[in-house]
Write a structure and sequence with these properties.
The protein has helices spanning 31-38, 40-43, 83-102; strands at 5-13, 18-26, 53-56, 59-61, 72-76. By secondary structure, it is α+β, with helices and mostly antiparallel strands. It has a single domain, classed as RnfH-like (Ubiquitin-like (UB roll)), CATH 3.10.20. The chain starts with a strand and ends with a helix.
Length: 103
């Protein structure tokens, strides 16, 4: 690693496993460049850089954001269910079960 390089990680999580790759990139590299260099686009063709959200340590960032040494780039999958709707359904089911117990 030269003084002009930085160490970053690229993370992608699937329901059954998580992948975290360490990379050396030149200073000034962007999130998109890190994802491309990671090789994850070839391993997982369903990742579409035009539509996928990217972030650094849990905060969504623009694809062109410049990375810093030791950053972790995260590739976010789209949600399959609206979390608010899931909580509403769970709460409604809980109320229904409690009312049945009281009967």
């Amino acid at each position: 690693m030269t003084s002009a390089d930085m160490q970053v990680e690229v993370a992608y999580a699937l329901p059954e496993r998580q992948i975290i790759l360490s990379l050396q990139l030149p200073q000034g590299s962007t999130l998109t460049q890190a994802v491309t260099a990671s090789g994850l686009l070839q391993r997982f063709p369903d990742i579409d850089l035009a539509t996928v959200k990217l972030g650094i340590f849990g905060k969504i960032k623009q694809a062109g954001e410049v990375l810093r040494d030791k950053d972790r780039v995260e590739i976010y999958r789209p949600l399959i269910a609206d979390p608010k709707e899931v909580r509403r359904k769970r709460a409604a089911e809980g109320k229904k079960m409690r009312s049945q117990k009281d009967s």
